[in-house]
Specification:
single chain; mainly beta
């Protein structure tokens, strides 16, 4: 009889470089299943619980706690240890009543920070695409795979403060001069800055911004930033 389904593990040496794991301890590790975040910018939920948060000691314990519905991602129970969790996702540990958000920090793509209970229903998402759907309505696609049909006039590169799990847009954060941004990738991942200028893309160069932080300016592609606050505002939610 042939195999059913794809592989659920990968070799540890092949895991993304930012994964905070012991590469020589064991041979295999859970593989990310497609559906939400890119596999190059996410953790497998089972890996996050065992190797990063260290709330379970092994994969069996992780599967048990997931099967019991004791882990919520963006306020939705998740049961699959291969489920992808990434930028700005909230992970709620029901037994300990702890809530974490994944953010970039110190040049690392993803790092869990503990947040207050009252923030667990809110999440920042970046608009990466928009399409016209049936009824001449606009559907917006976010960086975490979620989509939303909205009458609001939003642009690719803007951010939204979503209320989860309803996916209600609580606030629109426009990419403009003086917007507060978070650098999400690269050597400066995790740093905050202010947009000084927006440069439109060309045939050979992507759309980018000139941002100021720590008394210097950097030119950064918009793929590597996320708007987290409007002019003269602090971050809308905790990101560091």
């Amino acid at each position: 009889m042939g195999k059913k389904g794809g592989q659920t593990t990968i070799k540890r040496q092949s895991a993304p470089l930012f994964w905070d794991i012991k590469r020589k301890e064991g041979r295999f590790i859970p593989k990310i299943h497609p559906g939400t975040h890119s596999k190059d910018h996410a953790y497998a939920l089972g890996v996050l619980l065992r190797d990063v948060l260290k709330v379970v000691q092994n994969s069996k314990e992780g599967k048990n706690i997931l099967n019991d519905g004791k882990i919520r991602v963006d306020n939705v129970p998740r049961y699959n240890p291969n489920f992808a969790v990434g930028l700005m996702d909230t992970i709620e540990l029901i037994p300990s009543k702890q809530v974490f958000r994944l953010v970039p920090k110190d040049s690392s793509l993803l790092h869990p920070i503990e947040i207050n209970e009252d923030e667990k229903h809110f999440k920042l998402v970046k608009i990466i695409r928009k399409n016209i759907v049936k009824g001449n309505k606009i559907q917006y696609g976010f960086h975490d795979g979620k989509t939303k049909i909205s009458e609001n006039m939003l642009q690719v590169g803007d951010s939204c403060l979503l209320k989860t799990p309803e996916l209600e847009i609580a606030e629109h954060l426009k990419l403009s001069n003086n917007s507060l941004i978070l650098i999400t990738r690269g050597d400066n991942a995790g740093k905050l800055g202010r947009v000084q200028e927006i440069k439109e893309g060309t045939f050979s160069l992507p759309k980018r911004v000139i941002a100021s932080f720590e008394s210097k300016n950097l030119e950064i592609p918009i793929e590597m930033i996320m708007v987290i606050g409007n002019e003269n505002e602090n971050p809308r939610i905790k990101v560091s």
